[in-house]
Design brief:
Helix content: 25-40%
Number of strands: 18
Low-confidence stretches: none
Radius of gyration: 23 Å
Mean pLDDT: 96
Structural class: alpha+beta
Strand order of the largest sheet: 15-12-14-13-17-18-16
Largest sheet: 7 strands, antiparallel
Oligomer: single chain
């Protein structure tokens, strides 16, 4: 079929006006937050129902048309980039909360529901959806599940997959599957939910999800500590976890905080400067918990692990302390940062980070390195800022060499080349640093089962 015939057919499969071909729309919907691959989609199509998604997938199989899913497009691995004439399936109009069950504490959502929309709905009903990250105001649930998004609360609440009671998916063959039917206990063979969660749309598209909710945390309190040394992150974590259930444990470097302070939205937490900082969050449900927290803080100071610290006394102060961590990405964005999200087991974080930092600093002493991340679950975010006098193309070329060094270290520590943002296209060349060739062969075999014609987000995760 010609491109014109494909577009004409697409218009018969969705509601009127829900197929876009304007260059500005193609550029907007054909990319995510990565800047490496220029978007070149054929068209953007907006289904409103599972049935319309199914019709699109069946047509794609008949006409050999590639489909790329598009949610909030906040990913950093080019998993939602359409760079080769694909049709982008955008879920913006599948944004309804379909059902709520107070007894089961579950809510059924279409794939285009915004993360913050789900969080607000849960709060309005006296409950809590705990998966949270900086892009919650724009990321969509389908995209979160397709990349198994984590965020800042993983240490307490786990990843996105831990909150999925059931899924509706359209497979690459065009079959509609209702997976798990929202059951808490269902031991009837393979749990196919977990194949589609984290699959980046390569097996099929998630159209609806039933998400579990929990009780709201009580009196969340934030403690920011200035650390004497990177290894002290583990000393502090172990000390607090032995007595208090943490809801978050984040870290950031002094350089990272300097960029946030220069951005002008928050002030330094205390006068003492430290090379690294830890942010702890916990539920201060009683005076005893607060007394325990202060006692642990004093113990950390006495042991020489902590130089200074501050604890929030109000919800507003807690939000401001969180800004020291959550404002980092925005504050460094003008510097065209090279980003990498990687992970190892928690106990190996200090030596792992130190080794990467030394390698990059040794080879590129003019590069400014910004570290932050979810250190409580072993997830680190490496950010290298582009020198002002270095052309962007030269900077990205040098960063490709950085990739090789970093991922060789990741492999040696048996870590992951992608902790949160998926593989997409940017991490695809490095998948073998985390997955064995035998594993990848099994992944390819699974792909063939659900998407034999290869129409679902081709070229992502691995090549066939």
């Amino acid at each position: 079929m010609t491109p014109e015939q494909i577009i004409a057919t697409l218009k018969t499969l969705v509601d009127e006006g829900k197929v876009l071909t304007d260059p500005a729309d193609l550029d907007n919907y054909g990319k995510d937050w990565t800047k490496i691959y220029p978007p070149k989609p054929l068209a953007i199509v907006f289904p409103k129902t599972t049935e319309q998604v199914q019709a699109l997938v069946k047509f794609a199989n008949e006409a050999d048309v590639a489909l790329v899913p598009s949610g909030g497009r906040t990913g950093l691995s080019a998993g939602a980039v359409a760079a080769n004439g694909e049709v982008v399936v955008a879920f913006d109009y599948m944004n309804q909360i379909v059902d709520f069950n107070a007894s089961d504490r579950t809510v059924r959502c279409q794939a285009g529901v915004i993360t913050e929309q789900l969080q607000t709905f849960a709060e309005d009903n006296g409950l809590y959806y705990p998966v949270d990250f900086a892009s919650a105001g724009s990321s969509q649930l389908g995209g979160n599940l397709s990349t198994n998004a984590g965020g800042i609360k993983v240490i307490r609440y786990g990843m996105s997959r831990d909150w999925v009671a059931g899924l509706t998916v359209v497979t690459g063959k065009g079959d509609v599957l209702e997976l798990n039917k929202d059951l808490e206990k269902n031991n009837t063979g393979y749990d196919l939910r977990h194949l589609f969660i984290g699959a980046e749309g390569t097996l099929g598209f998630i159209t609806e999800a039933t998400m579990k909710l929990t009780r709201k945390p009580d009196n969340l309190t934030v403690l920011v500590l200035g650390l004497n040394d990177l290894t002290n992150t583990m000393d502090v974590l172990q000390t607090f976890q032995n007595r208090i259930d943490l809801t978050a444990y984040e870290f950031f470097s002094h350089q990272a905080m300097q960029h946030v302070l220069a951005h002008g939205q928050v002030q330094a937490p205390f006068e003492t400067e430290a090379p690294y900082y830890a942010l702890l969050e916990f539920e201060a449900v009683s005076d005893q918990v607060m007394d325990d927290a202060m006692g642990l803080f004093e113990q950390c100071v006495e042991n020489g692990w902590v130089l200074d610290g501050v604890i929030s006394q109000s919800e507003t102060q807690a939000k401001n302390l969180w800004m020291l961590r959550e404002g980092i990405s925005e504050s460094i964005a003008p510097r065209t940062p090279y980003k990498n999200d990687i992970s190892v087991v928690v106990s190996k974080v200090p030596e792992f980070l130190t080794e990467i930092d030394q390698v990059v600093t040794e080879h590129y002493p003019d590069f400014e390195i910004i570290w932050f991340g979810h250190i409580g679950d072993g997830n680190l975010h490496l950010n290298i800022l582009k020198p002002e006098d270095l052309p962007k193309e030269d900077f990205f070329e040098k960063c490709q060499q950085v990739n090789k060094w970093v991922f060789e270290i990741v492999e040696r520590y048996q870590g992951s080349v992608s902790a949160e943002h998926g593989v997409g296209m940017t991490k695809k060349p490095y998948l073998q640093y985390t997955r064995s060739e035998t594993e990848i062969d099994y992944l390819r075999a699974i792909k063939q089962v659900f998407d034999p014609k290869g129409v679902m987000n081709p070229g992502k995760v691995f090549d066939l």
